[in-house]
Design a protein that fits this description.
39% of the residues lie in helices and 18% in strands.
């Protein structure tokens, strides 16, 4: 995560940026599927066998994710974890799985496999091998929370980016019409295919 912020009070800017970056770390601790003790990882480990009580924050986020899945008719689906593992994307190893492995993974994929109980604030998976992946929502959620913190601190000009995939421009930089964003070429990271303001 990077934050570029402008203002007249350096102390205010530094405090707000520090708080925003701390929020990104907190959300990583909540949503990371790389950290065994994150709440997200706990749900992935246990929800295939039992209902798992979760924080209000995670429950609300999961409700939103399921709503996005319904609205997109499954184009967005946080239950792609088994496929991510099959293709080796989880740890970045990358590989071509066998068709049988893909079929097995697909049986566990589907946002309909997630049962949310609002009264108990629990999550349960209908399929024991279902696994959520935060890749489609985690960085964007963190960026949104960071923007909220900057706004609350009175910052009106800032740009936040999470590894170049999730970005937010708050206001505009001084003496500019907007924030410049360069789209990197997927095959050649040293080139840009487009530049937007």
């Amino acid at each position: 995560f990077t934050v570029t912020a402008y203002g007249t009070d350096r102390t205010q800017l530094e405090a707000a940026v520090t708080e925003a970056l701390e929020e990104a770390r907190r959300i990583d601790s909540l949503l990371s599927n790389y950290k065994r003790d994150s709440e997200w990882s706990k749900v992935n480990r246990l929800a295939g066998q039992q209902a798992v009580a979760v924080s209000t924050e995670l429950f609300d986020l999961l409700q939103n994710c399921l709503q996005y899945s319904r609205l997109s008719e499954g184009a967005f689906d946080i239950t792609v974890g088994p496929l991510m593992r099959s293709w080796g994307f989880f740890r970045g190893s990358g590989r071509f799985p066998h068709r049988a492995e893909i079929r097995t993974a697909m049986a566990a994929v589907g946002y309909q496999n997630i049962e949310l109980n609002p009264a108990e604030r629990t999550v349960r998976f209908r399929h024991p091998e279902t696994e959520m992946d935060p890749g489609g929502v985690g960085k964007g959620y963190a960026v949104d929370r960071m923007v909220d913190i900057l706004r609350s601190a009175g910052i009106t000009s800032a740009f936040i980016t999470a590894a170049g995939s999730s970005m937010y421009g708050l206001g505009a930089p001084p003496e500019e019409k907007g924030w410049k964003v360069q789209i990197t070429h997927p095959a050649d990271r040293s080139r840009h295919v487009a530049e937007l303001f």
